[in-house]
Amino acid sequence: MQMSTQVLILAVAISITAQQSVAETSEYPQSIVVITSDQHPINEPSLFVDSPASSKPAITLLNLDAVSDFERRLGEGLPADETQARVIIEQRITERRRVNVDAELRAAYQGLAVAMQYGLDRYPAIIFDQRAVVYGVTDLPVAIEKYRTWSRQKKRGAINDD
Q1: Among residues 11, 63, 129, 150, which one has the fewest Cβ atoms lying within 10 Å of its Cβ?
Q2: DSSP the chain
Q3: What is the pTM assigned to this prediction?
Q4: pLDDT tens across 65-75, in order?
């Protein structure tokens, strides 16, 4: 009789521990989208190093300066004459293969597209699970902690660092 009570207590303890573990991991985001610029580099020290790969969120880093960087690289050293400059740019695009250039441009503009999609009006902005935004934070672990706090409180909307 006493043995079955101990087994029951152990089973309940395991169940509670498992529920707490699931609750704790659910506070972590599944996806993180970071929108920033060269002036606001994101600090992301070895996050989730000890976590299993299945629990690590997908992190997408989008730099709003990517468009001007691409344009600068493509337009480096162009002559003042517009016709000559156009010819040189066409040569550069051909050398880089137009498919690669198109992919680079899409990637460069992705940050702007995502910012517009979410109606973001400032950056840096860190989007968690497509439902919460932390503004003005460049330290990813701090932003994640803000998200976890919000998640625990089960609020909807943006988390501001104001």
Answers
A1: 11
A2: -HHHHHHHHHHHHHHHHHHHHHHHHHTS-SEEEEEE-TTS--B--STTTTS-GGGSPEEEEEETTHHHHHHHHHHTT--S-HHHHHHHHHHHHHHT-HHHHHHHHHHHHHHHHHHHHHT--SSSEEEETTTEEEES--BHHHHHHHHHHHHHHT--S-B---
A3: 0.68
A4: 999 998 898 88
